[in-house]
Amino acid sequence: PRSSSSLTQTLTGGGDGMPAAGRSRCCRASAWLRMPPIFFAENAGSRMGDTWFIPLPLHHVGGMVSGILAVLWSAATYVVVERFTPNIAMRAVREARATILGLVPTMVIDLLKEPDVAESEFTDVRTVIGGATAVDPMLIDEIERRLGIRFLVAYGQSEAPCMTMSVDADTAAVRTRTLGHPLPGRDYCIA
Question: What pTM was estimated for this model as a whole?
Answer without folding.
Answer: 0.82
